[in-house]
Specification:
Layout lengths: L2 H5 L2 E6 L2 E6 L37 E3 L6 E3 L5 E3 L10 E3 L1 H23 L1 E7 L5 E8 L5 E5 L3 E5 L3 E9 L9 E10 L6 E8 L4 H26 L1
Antiparallel strand pairs: 1-2, 3-4, 5-6, 7-8, 7-13, 8-9, 9-10, 11-12, 12-13
Helix pairs in contact: 2-3
Length: 232
């Protein structure tokens, strides 16, 4: 096994919430991941935290695997995939958390693959007036943004500070807009200095424009998840 494969190795662990497939090394975890929340202790939860029903021998209490709060079966009956916490199977969640997790499933099922497949952009470094045509993609372990052209760059996702999606076609009346590029600010490990890259979609082929727009939309969603993970 190579060093890279060893760092990315995973193990199956059992927690009170269920089975999880997690990286053996914490440094190898996905930047979009979330930690399991602490459960509200049973003794602090005599009633359902949603409908206020009192718990007894008939009305049992259940913990939501996403928020850790305590609910009755009626308010916490849905079992929904929760890939951000690496659960192997769908897990019990309250109605509010289940809705959030269901929306995230689209990112993991579709948009994450779009990011890994990559798209082509003209990339401009800093204030340079020169740009380079590069294929941009998310690494398979989700930890790096990889840029390949005549040059090669790898930007650690955790070092990204801001992502601004550039659009065209927007009107004050709410007309449709299309993503045409993005401005990325990031830090180089060991330095506090912010660096900037500008990505502009290639106009060569209509199919490439569509692919680039899909990639940028997926990157926009990924950025939201990244910010949420940091704020945890």
């Amino acid at each position: 096994m190579s060093g890279c494969e060893a760092r990315d190795a995973k193990k199956l662990v059992r927690s009170p919430s269920g089975l999880r497939m997690v990286p053996e090394h914490r440094s190898a975890r996905s930047p979009f991941g979330l930690d399991e929340p602490p459960w509200v202790p049973d003794k602090e939860c005599p009633r359902c935290m949603q409908c206020d029903t009192k718990f007894d021998f008939i009305t049992r209490k259940h913990h939501c695997r996403r928020c850790g709060k305590c609910f009755c079966d009626k308010c916490c009956s849905k079992k929904v995939p929760l890939p951000r916490m690496c659960f192997v199977d769908p897990v019990r969640q309250c109605a509010e958390c289940a809705l959030v997790s269901q929306k995230e499933t689209e990112f993991y099922d579709k948009q994450l693959k779009v990011l890994m497949n990559g798209a082509t952009f003209f990339v401009t470094l800093g204030t340079s007036d020169k740009s380079e045509l590069m294929v941009c993609r998310l690494s398979n372990n989700q930890r790096y943004l990889v840029l390949d052209g005549d040059s090669h760059y790898e930007i650690e996702i955790l070092q990204i500070s801001t992502v601004q999606i550039l659009t065209e076609g927007f009107t004050p009346g709410g007309g449709n807009s299309r993503a045409i590029g993005m401005i990325l600010q990031y830090k180089v490990p060991g330095s506090e200095e912010l660096k900037q890259m500008k990505f502009t979609a290639s106009e060569d082929f209509s199919c490439n424009k569509k692919l680039s727009a899909s990639w940028l939309a997926a990157m926009h969603k990924a950025t939201k998840l990244l910010y949420e993970s940091r704020d945890q």
